[in-house]
Amino acid sequence: MPGEFERVHATAIAVGGRAALIRGPSGSGKSDLAFRCLGLGLSALVQDRVMLVSDDQVLLRREGTSLHASAPAQLRGKLEVRGVGILEVDAVTEANVVLIVDLVREGVIDRFPDPWPRARILGLELPQTRLSPFEGSSPLKLVAAIQTAPQPRL
Fold this sequence. Notes:
Elements lengths: L4 E5 L1 E5 L2 E6 L6 H9 L11 E5 L2 E7 L2 E5 L7 E4 L3 E4 L5 E10 L14 E4 L2 E8 L6 H11 L6
Parallel strand pairs: 3-9, 9-11
Antiparallel strand pairs: 1-5, 2-3, 2-4, 5-6, 6-9, 7-8, 10-11
């Protein structure tokens, strides 16, 4: 339903206003994956700057057929980096969630999701993928998935 809000334990990053909601249990690598994505430079594969939306907790708000992510005020622009501490990073105020990413340590990851699996949040079905967070190519895979994910639907 329009106007619904939800607070979730997750991390969100955005590329060109399109965001991914990264889900997984505590210690699964959400912040680490986001940190590595933030360090990617522009290239043929990364078409826009990667920005933090929120780390650890994400506020989700449905508006029509869009799902918007933002950070709670006390977490805005903050990213936890294990072994270093809390870093202040550039962040966007809000971004449109186009992808749900579930982190996995083991198990099968689809080679070519066609059609993309879907996850339902606040009454919307969003494309969903699974990533191994510590695989070397995961940051690029995540950015590519954000840039190419199909549109959410009711």
